[in-house]
Amino acid sequence: MNRPVMPDTGILGKIVHPRPQREVGSWLVPLLQSGAQVTIPQIADYELRRNLLLEGLVSSIQRLDQLKVALTYRPINTETMLKAAALWAQARAMKPAHATADPKDLDGDAILAAQALEAGAVIATENVGHLGLFAPAQSWSDMR
Q1: Which pLDDT score, from 0 to 100, does residue 97 have?
Q2: Which 8-state DSSP code applies to residue 45?
Q3: How confident is the model at residue 40 (pLDDT cuts 50, 70, 90)?
Q4: Using CB atoms within 10 A of its CB, is residue 10 exposed (0-12), middle (13-18) or buried (19+)?
């Protein structure tokens, strides 16, 4: 993979899940061995971490923290949020509208897409149709 790979929250959750997810491990390890850069987006860390904290999944939080050290971590910055706001408005201006979240919600998908665009990354996801509206996205299981 020539572009950096940015897992969405769902894929990141499978990686740090309390019960090993063999299919994701058999995807991630060869991807890293091939020299691909896997980048953890801060928005995915946030969305996953809040749920792990709520569920008290301490070992999963520790695995997430270890991944942040082992892989590249992409923090959110002002430019990301400006781009995310533009993507959010663009989605709602489409005919028909392609809202990715309730209008009152902080739209994590728009922020993830903005982070991927800034990094020149492709999003690894199970929701290509949704995220692919705004940024390059590919099914994680098709990435090699």
Answers
A1: 59
A2: H
A3: very high
A4: middle
Number of domains observed in the structure of the chain: 1
pTM confidence score: 0.89
Q: Is residue 130 within 8 Å of 116, Cβ to Cβ?
A: no
Residue 113, CB-side half-sphere exposure with 13 Å CA sphere: 25
Mean pLDDT of all residues belonging to the chain:
89
Residue type, 142: D
3-state helix, strand, coil in the chain (%, to 5): 55, 10, 30
For the chain, the C-alpha Rg in angstroms (whole number) is: 15
Q: What is the pLDDT of residues 43-90, one digit of tens each?
A: 999 999 999 999 999 999 999 999 999 999 999 999 999 999 999 888
The domain that holds 28 is classified in CATH as 3.40.50.1010
What is the domain extent for residue 63?
Answer: 5-142
